[in-house]
Amino acid sequence: MHKQRLLRLPAAFLGTLALLLAVLLAVNAIPRAALARGLTASADYYAAYGVRRNWAPGLEQSKEDIYADAVLMNIAACMKPGLAATAAARYHDSGGYMGQSLADAVGGADANADYSRYWHGALIPVTLLLLVTDAGGVRLINALLLAALASLFLSACRKRRLKGLAAAYLLAFAATESFFVPLSIEYMPCYVLSLLAALLILRLKEENLPLLFLLTGLCTAFFDFLTVETMTLLLPLIALVALRRKRDETAGLVRSMAGYGGLWLAGYAGAFLCKWLLAAAVLGPSAWAETAAMGAEKFAGDAPANLPLGRYGSAIFNNLAGLVPTTLADTYLGVTAVLAAAGLILFCFWFLYRGRKLPRGIAPALILAGLVPYGRYLLLPYHALVHNFFTYRAQLCSLMCLFLLIGWTLDPARLRPKRRRKA
Q1: pTM score above 0.70
Q2: Is 392 in contact with 280 (CB distance < 8 Å)?
């Protein structure tokens, strides 16, 4: 990277963050009366349920995160104009289900808790949509948006003759039951950002990629609620691997990926640091203490002491279990059997039809990328353990890496049915 371009990155980071903050402040200044109809209808819906709702009976993967979405709308209901209110992100907590707390907030109850450690950038689209619709309308719009972005990505892959990349995304999308994602508003930002970043990877020159990864990390921290944040790094990186393979430019691939990953992490961590500094400046030193306490909880938490596989093993296993529909298996033995059977089938398929060698650098690049979500589970084991019902979907990118490793080593001639010779 040229030194001049490198020096522009901090300015781009600060300018983009300032712009996003300005937009968030403007949206938060919208009179709450204008949101009354949308918030009331949403509160009535969420108050009818507990913490979560399964749209398909017995299928945990169809879970709608009532708690997370009700918190977001609760913050929207309690929001006041100004930097202090935006930094504090206060909401009302009645002490029971968050759906009822939202209903109380809409009814005029005062905010009595804050969520200052996140930017809550998702308030921007949600608040604007609440002007014209309610939670149900937001879910519908989310579904249409996800379908549109996924279709654009698949179309871009087809135009660039990256059919393997498109197939891997479709298979991994289905395997992680990601078609249920639009049901939960807080789960959408990472899917949107990852697809946008991947689309840009397929269009931009490589000299522009450092800025892309830096700003993608920033936007992930700004809009996400700590769900599947690694997806916004890994999907564009996997698209880059496919492009480099297509162009036969795999030399230094792992080094390039590490550099882009470092820039993404700088944007992600830098945005969080700016938020915590803002909260501390506005709310006082107690904001630092609250952030530190919650960070410790994400790592350690109050996990059960009798976990069969321990804290770290259970964090990994519980997320792997998310790949197995609960209608098929919901016990340790059952999940292990299904995963083992799936692995055996994939191995046999690869063994029978293998025949091509991967260009140098492709295998380590995909393996390292595929392991990133599991590193994240180990970094925040308690969070990954108790929230595995949504964090497991970060494995979409791990599955893509696996499918590409298999697909790119298959022999097309072996896959074609043999024609019988005429006598």
Answers
A1: yes
A2: no
